[in-house]
Design a protein that fits this description.
- The complex is a heterodimer of chains A (192) and B (552).
- With 192 residues, chain A is α+β, with helices and mostly antiparallel strands.
- Helix content of chain A is 23%, strand content 34%.
- The longest helix of chain A has 13 residues.
- Chain A is elongated.
- Chain B has 22 helices and 20 strands.
- In chain B, the strands form four sheets. Chain B has a six-stranded parallel beta sheet.
- The longest helix of chain B has 16 residues.
- The model of chain B has no long low-confidence stretch (mean pLDDT 93).
- The chains are: A alpha+beta (192), B alpha/beta (552).
Chain lengths: 192, 552
């Protein structure tokens, strides 16, 4: 089982290292991690997919909050969100197979971004499943190279990126209630 | 200085010299340690005894890496320490320059936060933020690594304008009203409640509230190793230390409880034994300042995230004055039964047991000393037989367990509380790890006393070998120096104690002596710490001391 987090961090040197070190230190497995700028200055945004269950996800979230450079953590695993992965796939193409490949690319709403005498480069975005599926159908033609960005995620609706200090109340409000997701309790009845 | 720093503990070197050069211009006393590990333990002991922030200073490379054990100790025990290290000039970073170590990388997982400062105008804001982070919320060590060129630069700094506001750092948490109500329902409905008091109670200065809380509803109190002193040992509701070497009745009470109220503790594995069998019939309330500790080891019913004092003050008016005398009587019954196994009650067979030595130290110091212990058997015997009534009167490393902690930490403790009667209780193994700090002791003219519980073995490891490795005592016997002669080389008075009758007079002589005194207490070599919960065993499955005929 995996969990997806959107993590807002200060755009400072070494922050990625702190995040990665936390996952290593607490023995959580990162399935994918992407990082980039946001529309808010000084704030970077990561999408982290972690191989862990719900209980583990809560621990990840709590530990992320202990990092001083972490601004906000959203666990979007159970919230409606759009997930996207981007892949570039270089596939062998002969005069015989080129048109077949181009038809497949059309079906997947992917694009040809480079054409060479013996190969095509395909760019595709979508969910991981869709990209896996395209890779499967291209494999018989001979996949020479493939690269994927890993998952990026954004919650549906009106949520927005928190601003840095002074520009938004989002950061100054109370810390999101990670503890409210506290476990099921011990379930032990009080003694009669 | 604006942070109220009176003492720094350190060791100079090339990359920190600009800082050292300016130290005499400020009213801060520098204590020259003999090793950077000692400097951090001193700062740690200073913080634990005095309640402020400890400061340690070291140079780049080896100076910084020598601090690592001290920093990890402070991290595990939530001790507010600021470590300042020199770094090679910013232009040389990454070139493997002489004495260059990526100390912010090295200390990443063992600091609460750390900084690499490469510009002079970043130094003061980073230091101010470091002190703020070290002492607020759940305290911890913060390291500030400053390049030599930044140290040599100049910058104007407006203190008041630089209020630290790290945007992602929010140490203040408060429980919700509904969570308080749930907690009160559990507390007022419990028949067999036990309070578990941890280090957070002392850190949050909530000792009085804990006492009021326990007394209001006659709830017995068990303490963790670092919780010792936060609830008076002489109090009728005090059970004692729980956990791996906790007394049998304490662990039995925890296991039989129907409600555990955990205050400022983190359900460490030394405290819980095997998690699957820990307090199986108990509901659990966890009062804790660090949200990441909730449900980390033990799943709880109600988590109250916040300052322990504030939470207790809010709960207190809602606590019904219930009578738990039947439950207390049941615990007392177990306690009576355990008396037949207590070494205190054994007939004097002419041999000197460590438990006796510590018991007599407690008597002779009137129970009022600040005791700083190391790690190992003596640490557990101290916890069992020295009865601490005052907060912050036992300073010991619980989480990391670094041998060599006691002597340097005691130096820091004495400087934080000059009026206190500070005693080091240390094993012969651990003492030798940092005994170079005897030099610091003499140079600083510090009056503390040292009791070496000398059994000629790495006793705790020997005990594990005895129980679990067929008594094959490999690499645990020690060939020791003559500690009394060693002390005299430093101009320190040494006294050897070889029988029980000698303990009290030696302690009295040490107390009366003007300077530091070292007692070499030769105890029974083949004694073990009982009871003991073996790794993987439940808290109530203890290895007990064989029962003997009881005196009187």
């Amino acid at each position: 089982m995996s969990s997806t987090f959107v993590v807002y961090v200060e755009d400072k040197p070494g922050v990625l290292n702190r995040i990665a070190s936390l996952f290593r230190r607490r023995a959580f497995n990162i399935e994918s991690l992407t990082v980039g700028h946001t529309e808010a200055p000084g704030v970077s945004r990561m999408t982290i997919v972690v191989g862990t269950d719900r209980e583990g996800a809560r621990k990840v979230e709590a530990h992320l909050y202990k990092l001083v450079n972490v601004l906000r953590v959203d666990d979007v695993t159970a919230t409606p969100a759009v997930y996207r992965d981007l892949a570039m796939i270089k596939v062998t193409a002969t005069p015989d197979t080129r048109s077949h490949i181009m038809q497949l690319v059309d079906v997947y709403r992917a694009r040809i971004v480079d054409v060479a005498p013996g190969s095509l480069m395909v760019e595709v975005t979508g969910t991981e499943d869709k990209i896996d599926s395209l890779l499967d159908v291209l494999r018989p033609y001979g996949v020479l190279e493939a690269v994927r960005t890993g998952r990026v995620a954004m919650a549906r609706g009106n949520a927005r990126t928190p601003r840095m200090r002074g520009t938004s109340a989002a950061l100054r409000g109370p810390i999101p209630r990670i503890v409210s997701q506290l476990g099921r309790g011990t379930g032990v009845p009080l003694s009669a | 200085m604006r942070e109220g720093v009176s003492h720094v503990f350190g060791y100079p070197g090339g990359a920190i010299l600009p800082v050292y050069d300016s130290l005499p211009d400020y009213p801060v006393h520098h204590v020259l340690a003999r090793h950077e590990q000692g400097a951090v333990h001193m700062a740690d002991g200073f913080a634990r005894a005095g309640g402020g922030v400890g400061v340690a200073l070291a140079t780049s490379g080896p100076g910084a890496t020598n601090m690592v054990t001290g920093i990890a100790t402070a991290m595990m025990d939530s001790s507010p320490v600021v470590c300042i290290t020199g770094q090679v000039s910013s232009g040389l970073i990454g070139s493997d320059a002489f004495q260059e170590t990526d100390i912010t990388g090295v200390t990443l997982p063992i600091t609460k936060h750390n900084y690499l400062v490469t510009e002079a105008d970043e130094i003061a804001p980073a230091l101010r933020e470091a002190f703020y982070i070290a002492r607020s919320g759940r305290p911890g060590p913060v390291l500030v690594d400053i390049t030599k060129d930044a140290q040599q630069g100049a910058a104007a700094f407006d203190w008041d304008a630089a209020e630290p506001t790290p945007p992602g750092y929010r140490p203040d948490h408060r429980p919700r009203a509904a969570e308080y109500r749930q907690a009160l329902d559990l507390i007022n409905g419990a028949r067999r409640p036990v309070m578990l008091v941890g280090h957070g109670v002392a850190l949050g200065r909530a000792e009085e509230l804990v006492r009021a809380f326990a007394e209001r509803s006659t709830i017995p109190v068990a303490v963790t190793l670092l919780g010792i002193g936060a609830f008076p040992a002489s109090h009728p509701l005090h059970l004692g230390m729980m956990g791996m070497h906790g007394e049998a009745w304490v662990n039995e009470a925890v296991q039989q409880a129907d409600l555990l109220i955990a205050l400022g503790m983190r359900f460490d594995d030394r405290v819980t034994g095997t998690l699957s069998t820990f307090a199986p019939g108990a509901r659990k309330i966890h009062v804790e300042i660090d949200p990441a500790e909730l449900n980390k080891n033990v799943t709880v019913d109600v988590g109250l995230v916040g300052d322990v004092g504030e939470v207790l003050a809010t709960l207190l008016p809602g606590v019904a004055p219930n009578d738990h005398s039947a439950w207390l009587a049941r615990i007392d019954e177990i306690r009576q039964h355990a008396a037949s196994r207590s070494i205190q009650n054994f007939a004097d067979d002419g041999r000197l047991y460590a438990a006796h030595a510590i018991h007599d130290l407690w008597q002779a110091t009137g129970g009022r000393a600040v005791v700083v212990t190391d790690v190992g058997q003596h640490q557990m015997w101290e916890a069992q037989y020295y009865r601490h009534d005052a907060p912050r009167s036992l300073i010991t490393s619980g989480g990391l367990g670094p041998m060599g902690f006691a002597l340097p930490a005691a130096i820091g403790a004495k400087l934080a509380r000059p009026e206190a009667d500070v005693w080091v209780v240390v094993g012969d193994g651990g003492f030798q790890m940092t005994m170079a700090e005897l030099g610091t002791l003499v140079q600083e003219r510090i009056k503390i006393n040292i009791a070496i519980i000398n059994n000629g073995y790495l006793g705790m490891v020997r005990q594990l070998q005895e129980f679990f490795y067929g008594a094959r005592y490999h690499a645990t016997p020690l060939v020791n120096p003559d500690f009394v002669t060693l002390a005299s080389a430093y101009g320190i008075r040494g006294i050897r104690v070889t029988d029980r009758a000698g303990v009290m007079p030696a302690v009295d002589a040490a107390t009366a002596h003007d300077g530091p005194v070292l007692l070499d207490i030769r105890v029974e070599p083949d004694d073990a710490v009982y009871p003991m919960v073996a790794a993987g065993a439940g808290l109530d499955q203890m290895i007990r001391r064989p029962a003997q005929e009881v005196v009187g």
